[in-house]
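Bug #2210: token dump truncated for Deferrochelatase?
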Amino acid sequence: MTTADGTERPGNGGAAETAATGGAPGPAPRTGAAAAGRTRRGFLRGAAVAGTAGAAGAVGLVAGQAAHAGADTPAPRAERPVPFHGVHQNGILAAPCRSTAFVSFDVTADARADLADLFRTLTERARFLTGGGAPPPAGITAPPTDSGTLGPEVPAGGLLVTVGVGASLFDDRYGLGPRAPRRLTAMAPFPDDDLDPAWCDGDISVQFCADSQDTVLHALRDIARHTRGGLQVRWRLDGFSSPPRPSGTPRNHMGFKDGTANPDRADRRTMNRLVWAGPPSGEPAWADGGSYQAVRLIRMLVEFWDRVSLTEQERMFGRSRDTGAPLDGNHEHDTPRFAQDPKGDVIPLDSHIRLANPRTADTDRNRILRRSYNYDRGTDSNGNLDMGLLFCSYQQDLQRQFKTVQQRLAGEPLTDYISPFGGGYFYALPGVRNAHDWWGRGLLT
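Reproduced locally. Full output below:
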């Protein structure tokens, strides 16, 4: 394939408004049932006991979010806890944190009862980690109950933990097939993708977000320790959200603002229409309050991108790089006037923002809530920079929203500069209602 500057290179893949999206070498392949024999219900129950300390601290307000509820400008959160209990998982609507780790796991639990214990353990550990507190003491000869990387007492650190389930969890292992979310499938490639199976899908997704990387890594390490008998990492990608420069929405590695056109997350009616799923949208009763999570790992070929003129870059996106404004506007959040530019003289007809969101009465229902992060994995085996976007979005209906938008983007000019290589579809579980509830309770009981 030939790029816009005439350089020859291999072909690559697609994205969703308002930016493109990342890639890297693959992790160990799925081991499936081969590791299942290591799982023991007693082990999981024992691991869960340590998670009860500090649960009462999981109250308070999300600090440091943007003043405009619809804006996604990340700002440092205070050390106080983010609320853990609620109808929905709080990590879905919260503004992006500075640091994240997205991890896909394969379940190695033996039976459905073991799977229920696994979800109880996940819940109890997340409840403790997001609330903070002192780890329980260990015996004189026992290993410490905490890694100690955050000090003798675990600070809440504004940590958010978001859990989803993949289509593979509903195979014949646990008898959950009849209870599967109606629109949940494995991720199939779009025309411009180059998916690596080792970087795709998984039984359970867990995303850790905080404003300090050590808080994220501490939480990941804690969850991995307490679920070792029931979960095995399938793939993992760490990311970060850049501070606004100079203001507004953060930028991606291509230099453009990412997430400008997000719907207003403070508008409950809009969130009910676009994000939250449940019986009204055709989902089973247990799924009420959840949301479909689409994850795309998209490498950006930045060394090729950096050879393209700014004018051409802006026409590919349909926005000004400096301000984030549409090419027919002056400010980042100005609404593009596509109807007044029917031939694409100002904003090209094949620009990213025009394909992703044509802004007609029929396409408003296709909008998604983006929750994306940048990533950087150093260099690949050829010495090329390996960086891109950990794209994540939430929507009520994968087909009506994410997949429809992605299909409109097929063949867009940006596909010469991005290469989607992994990701997956998951159903973000309903929230944990109270201290007696746990993730997946409605599904498994």
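Output looks complete on our side. The chain is about 20% helix and 15% strand. Marking as cannot-reproduce; reopen if the truncation happens again.
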